[in-house]
């Protein structure tokens, strides 16, 4: 079951973007003033992105849907609410039935995670896990995390929000609900032509090295962000211990 869980996390992370990373967020996002105002972000409330995820030789191993839900006052903090829903597909579903949902509540100014939630439905077994980072909160497990830590969803949106022309590198700690990781992301190319089911895009290519704080093992990710106002993630490729994973954009709503 541990191997299946690892595959599930990586499939979702690839479709949603990366699967974790760390050190201190040194790049810096475009921030608004104090007082809880939201940052100037390329994404907006109501955005939904649909992905097809391939694993090894299976081009349709899973699907993932990423949503930006309305911002809210989250226990006194102005926060973005990001959500990812993932399902395995046939033929993988014959051996691994996964229907998972992940919710991220990230600070509206810095996109640092306030709370990360996992609603797992795997092989007929359901589980709910809620992690409050560095804060005590009813119904959630308090996790002591390095300053600036984000969950995999918050990292994706932080990568979109980063000004890559001014800050070609970005560092961030990441917590996936089980382990801490370190990520160093950098721009590899300003213009690539990328063809996915949603169309042909002119996109910047971002490379990321992701290493585990526990074992030191590393993974390589490549993400293509469209050169459009939304910096839409159009493709994510991952070289991970359980094989190669590829997430491609199918539709934008």
Q: How is this structure best described in words?
A:
The chain is mostly beta strands and 253 residues long. Helices cover 10% and strands 53% of the residues. It has two helices and 13 strands, in the order H-E-E-E-E-E-E-E-H-E-E-E-E-E-E. It has a 13-stranded mixed sheet with strand order 7-6-5-4-3-2-1-13-12-11-10-9-8. The radius of gyration is 17 Å and the shape is globular. The chain starts with a helix and ends with a strand.
Distance between the termini: 34 Å
Return the CATH architecture. Beta Barrel
Per DSSP E runs of 2 or more residues, the count of β-strands stands at: 13
Q: Give start-end ranges of low-pLDDT stretches.
A: 1-37
Radius of gyration: 17 Å
Largest sheet: 13 strands, mixed
Helical coverage, percent range = under 10%
Mean pLDDT: 83
Largest sheet strand order: 7-6-5-4-3-2-1-13-12-11-10-9-8
Protein structure class: mainly beta
CATH class membership = Mainly Beta
Count of folded domains: 1
The succession of helices and strands, N to C, reads HEEEEEEEHEEEEEE
Q: Might you state the CATH topology name?
A: YmcC-like fold
Shape: globular
Q: What are the SSEs and their pairings?
A:
Layout: H1 2-16, E1 48-55, E2 58-74, E3 77-88, E4 99-107, E5 113-122, E6 125-133, E7 141-143, H2 152-161, E8 169-175, E9 180-196, E10 199-212, E11 218-226, E12 233-240, E13 243-252
Parallel strand pairs: 6-7
Antiparallel strand pairs: 1-2, 1-13, 2-3, 3-4, 4-5, 5-6, 8-9, 9-10, 10-11, 11-12, 12-13
């Amino acid at each position: 079951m541990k191997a299946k869980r690892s595959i599930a996390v990586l499939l979702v992370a690839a479709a949603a973007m990366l699967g974790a990373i760390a050190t201190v967020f040194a790049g810096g996002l475009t921030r608004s003033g104090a007082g809880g105002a939201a940052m100037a972000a390329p994404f907006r409330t109501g955005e939904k992105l649909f992905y097809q995820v391939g694993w090894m030789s299976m081009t349709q191993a899973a699907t993932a849907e990423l949503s930006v839900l309305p911002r809210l006052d989250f226990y006194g903090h102005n926060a973005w609410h990001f959500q990812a829903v993932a399902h395995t597909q046939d033929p993988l579903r014959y051996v691994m039935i996964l229907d998972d949902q992940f919710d991220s509540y990230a600070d509206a100014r810095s996109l640092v995670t306030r709370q990360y939630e996992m609603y797992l439905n795997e092989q007929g077994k359901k589980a709910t896990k809620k992690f409050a980072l560095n804060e005590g909160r009813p119904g959630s497990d308090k996790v002591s995390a390095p300053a600036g830590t984000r969950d995999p969803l918050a990292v994706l949106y932080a990568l979109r929000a980063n000004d890559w022309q001014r800050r070609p590198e970005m560092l961030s700690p990441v917590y996936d609900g089980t382990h801490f990781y370190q990520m160093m992301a950098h721009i590899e190319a300003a213009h690539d032509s990328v063809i996915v089911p949603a169309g042909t895009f002119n996109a910047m290519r971002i490379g990321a090295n992701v290493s585990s704080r526990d074992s030191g093992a590393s993974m390589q990710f490549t993400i293509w962000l469209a050169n459009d106002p939304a910096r839409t993630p159009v493709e994510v490729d991952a070289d991970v211990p359980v094989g190669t994973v590829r997430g491609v954009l199918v539709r934008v709503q």
